[in-house]
Amino acid sequence: MNIKNSALPLILSTLLTACAGYAPMAAAPTRVADGVLTDARGMTLYVFDKDTAGSGKSVCNGPCATNWPPLMVTEGEDGGNAYSIVTRDDGSKQWAFKGKPLYRWVKDQKPGDRTGDSFNSVWHVATP
């Protein structure tokens, strides 16, 4: 193909304009296994009834967060689709699904464990 030098800037400009609107979709911070949300290692994720969906806050802090470690946001990650980010009391960032902060349960030992489901009737597996 023979493109004249005068047409090349126009073609490049058109290609760059078309690509400028392209933004790759962020990878979801969770996976789905057997109908529940899990972290990247396959550990079950939970939601806490005392958290208010959409509040942007987690009420599980201090000793609660020791037993129910939050699913933390890694630097540079961003929310999207059903995922959002809440700010914890210490200023750190935690993932939320449909506005509800996500947690692991310290007593789950291997992927697929769900020993925290219905704990104290306020903790439940997170479902998509």
The tally of helices reads: 2
The mean pLDDT is 85
Low-confidence stretches: 8-25
- Strand order, main sheet: write it out: 4-5-6
Spatial shape: globular
Structural class: alpha+beta
The largest β sheet comes out as: 3 strands, antiparallel
Order of helices and strands: HEEEHEEEE
Rg = 21 Å
Terminal Cα span? 50 Å
Q: Percent range for helical residues?
A: 10-25%
Beta strands, count:
7
Strand content: 15-25%
Draw up the topology in text.
Elements: H1 8-20, E1 31-33, E2 36-38, E3 46-48, H2 63-67, E4 83-87, E5 93-97, E6 100-101, E7 123-125
Antiparallel strand pairs: 1-2, 3-7, 4-5, 5-6
Account of the protein in words:
It is a single chain. By secondary structure, this protein is of the alpha+beta class. Helix content is 14%, strand content 19%. The protein is built from 2 helices and 7 strands; from the N terminus they run αβββαββββ. It has helices spanning 8-20, 63-67, and strands spanning 31-33, 36-38, 46-48, 83-87, 93-97, 100-101, 123-125. It has a 3-stranded antiparallel β-sheet with strand order 4-5-6, with no helix packed on it. It has a two-stranded antiparallel ribbon with strand order 1-2. A two-stranded antiparallel ribbon has the order 3-7. Strand 4 and strand 5 (93-97) form a beta hairpin. It is globular.
